[in-house]
Amino acid sequence: MKLFLKLSFMAKDREDSLKHIVAVAKRRGFVFAGSEIYGGLSNTFDYGPVGIEILQNLKKLWWEYFVHKRKDVVGLDSSILLNPSVWEASGHVGNFSDPLMDCKQCKTRIRVDHFLEEKKGESFCTGKTLKELQKVIEDEKYACPSCGAVGTFTEPRSFNLMFKTSHGASEDNSMDIYLRPETAQGIFINFKNIYNSSRRKVPFGIAQIGKSFRNEIMARQFIFRTREFEQMEMEFFCEPGTQTEWFTTWLDYCMNWLTNVIGLKKENLRIREHDKEELSFYSDRTADIEYKFPFGWGELWGIASRTDYDLKQHEKFSGQDLKYHDQVQNKKYLPYVVEPALGLNRLFLAVLSDAYEEEKLEKEEMRTVLHFNPKVSPFKVAIFPLMKKDGLDIKAKEIVESLSKIWYVDYDDSAAIGKRYRRHDEIGTPFCITVDYDSLKDDTVTIRERDSMKQDRIAIKEIIGFILERMG
Ligand code: ATP
């Protein structure tokens, strides 16, 4: 067994650590810049062979915990394109905007709230009008962060974040529609369909995973804030008056999933309650689960008590009765809603950051290792034949075939064994198995654990039990 010294996070500072994560993400095929061979398209990303495995694992673990494990939640896959009235009813046409201004000299576009909050502190802009924000910028004589000019900002204005597109082939008949900026509204407009067809009784929830689009002005920090992203949202419909209790239940449930199922470190998570000023107009309580990203704390999961705002609005705009008929109490009411809304790509960044470590081994050797929870790892096991000949490769492929019935397994016969270990450390494979000449004689293999780098000699027939026992 190799001795090694843990230097948890060797990166000099936090920004540096993000650069290291971005580099390993590209080198090993987690995440690539979008449209790269054409010079890229800013803020778009493609998920490579190991990245997609992590996304799929996270979605599966979320679906199991939020839908299958619960008898009071069902799933949905609604359209990305919705009737534009949906967004008028929800308030997105009128209110879903960010304040922005341009520097007239260098043409840099700036998000006013981010700009001021960096200078004046978190929540400084909450509740202030655009005119008030403009006055602060002028009074303080703030310079453009890009060219340094003073007094060159345009008036701040509201910029709607929804992507517009056309529905219909001919110019005359086409209609302006939007790409959905959240998955939630697809759930609200299907509330009646689902409660009629699935015979659910309030309280119950509807969960959905899908892409959302926001024309973010300041898309930044790798995959933290992008214009195209995936959300995992659940709307939990409950009787008015019970929402506070359900809010606490779901907040705990989400935290439990992050720490006990995904395995994020507790010290990198915190809950931040919104104060009255910050609360959205439709919410009577909201809290964010924040993660300590390499660039600082940021929202990972928003848990909002949305009252009956959405259903009430859709009743008003659609003219349909969306009330729930409680047959036991013999009364009709619009349910209140508690919504846990999580961004899949942000979660992916949290998982990468949490798992990333640079370790100094003996003889000044370094290794980068991703300590993913095995449930999240792209491959659970990798099999290496010592050489690509003498039947070692055939024996290794037999093991791959039998283990592939249970897990996603990699076969790797390129380069020296040490190099193969490094590659799998960097993609977070929890177990690597080497097939050598003794394996041909006595049906044993060497199995190495990623985190401890401990190696054991075990019989091929013991592999599954050995791994299951350690995966938990
Ligand atoms: P933020 O304040 O960071 O813009 P938000 O409060 O607008 O986020 P919600 O509308 O509550 O976010 O969306 C729920 C979740 O979706 C967020 O907690 C986040 O994980 C994710 N999310 C929102 N916007 C983006 C984005 N542009 N890129 C990636 N993920 C996002």
How many domains is the backbone divided into? 3
Main-sheet strand order equals 4-10-11-17-14-13-12
How many beta-strand segments?
24
Report the CATH topology name of the largest domain: BirA Bifunctional Protein, domain 2
What would the principal axes of the Cα set say about the shape?
globular
Poorly predicted runs are 1-11
CATH uppermost class of the largest domain = Alpha Beta
| Terminal-residue CA separation | 23 Å
Number of helices: 15
- Residues in helices, as a percent range: 25-40%
Ligands: adenosine-5'-triphosphate
Largest sheet: 7 strands, mixed
The pLDDT mean sits at 92
Find the CATH superfamily of the largest domain.
Answer: Bira Bifunctional Protein, Domain 2
CATH architecture of the largest domain: 2-Layer Sandwich
Q: Which structural class is indicated by helix and strand composition? A: alpha+beta
Sum up the structure in keywords.
disordered N terminus; binds adenosine-5'-triphosphate; Rossmann fold; 24 strands; seven-stranded mixed sheet; alpha+beta; 15 helices; BirA Bifunctional Protein, domain 2; five-stranded mixed sheet; 33% helix; 3 domains; Rubrerythrin, domain 2; 472 residues
